[in-house]
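Model: You mentioned two targets. I'll fold them one after the other.
Researcher: Yes, keep them separate.
Model: Target one:
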Amino acid sequence: MDIQKKCLAIVGTGQIGCSIGMAVKKHVALVTGTDLNQKHLQEAVQLGLVDVALTLREAIAYASIIVVATPVDVAIPLLAQILDLIDSNTLVVDVGSTKLQVCNALRQHINRRNYVAAHPMAGSSVQGPKGALPKLFDGAKTFICEPQLSSDYALDTAKELFHCLNSRVEFIDPDEHDRLVGLVSHLPQALAYSLCNVVKLFDAEGFDWKGAAATAFDSTTRLAGSSSSVWLPIMNQNRENLLKYITATVGELHKLQQYLESNNIPALETYIDIANQVRNQLEESKKTPTSNSNGKRSTSTATAA
């Protein structure tokens, strides 16, 4: 499969869409951009992240590959609209953070074989085109859901696209995907918001928390810089899983509170040791090389990096 002569359209010129545009520009003939947010679209052109700004219909007409990188609530009706208008040789990929609802919505579409449901596990809190990074996806895992419903051509082209991003492709069931990312992505996001709101509660006490905040606060609240326009739709679409994990988190905090109130030092030590073990498991997993998908059409569950 060779994408070098293809035109790629980015629908949604935010951080993720523009990072994809930056990373693939040297691999494709032309990168176009389209967005209802004209400020983002013009910034993307001015920064050289996309080659030209087009309307949605123009972008669909010219493109061989269409990447939809909009908020997830917008993506479902937009993908259906795009799939209605494409020809048989066009690939449509979405890169949203939730997959179950979009897969369910598009499963019976007449052009479902032209669609690949994907999610690159990468991003940062810097929003918009100015947050784009050409190496954002380097070494990151990209999940693809329901590959058996995509044509060989669509799946192979999508895999080549993510290979150009230096991303590792793995297949996963959409329900398992949403449960997994709910735990390792959406819950940390919610906790970052909550921690910032806890600090806000103590503003009236006159603490100079900004002057005292160092690495611990910075590293645990970085995600809280992400906007509600991105995260409200994600949390809403994955609310069942997120509520389960928030309930579990409240339970863990209650345990910690009880151990502190009773001055139960052995229990506190065990509590921290268990957390250390989980963190060490993550660090060890980073040392284990993981190869790209071998391309077999499977829906086997993958573990997140």
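Model: Target two:
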Amino acid sequence: MTQLTRDELLTKQELAIEKVDMGEGTFVYVKEMTGRDRDRYERSLMTEVKDGDGNTTGYERSLEDFRAKLAVFTTCDETGKLLFKPSDYSVLSQNIGAFRLERIVNKAQELNLISEADKEALIKNSEGGQAASSTSDSAES
């Protein structure tokens, strides 16, 4: 086993891209996210918590459209270029069948090591309404 150097870690990594059968003779490609893409995806699941005066008091996780958001951050062409803009998630969620969306999401979770425990944590945090402060500039994607 060899330790990676700084330069090796900073070199752009070739990310995995896999074809996903969508049924009826159709397919899409789904890719592994970069660290930055994963952070942006996770940030897209956060919503602002406001007090009675409309002031932001923190952030909490929201499961709304989380599958479509994951699809937006991972569905690509054969070269890895994303097919969607981050703002496409709502239209995608409303127009794609659950069966097809789930096929994309299952592959995206596999490639990006999003485990059942990760999904359960999302659900737990969302149901608990836990607010947490954020160190980022914005919770939007």
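Researcher: Noted. Anything on target two?
Model: The domain at 17-125 is CATH 3.30.2220.20 (rbstp2171).
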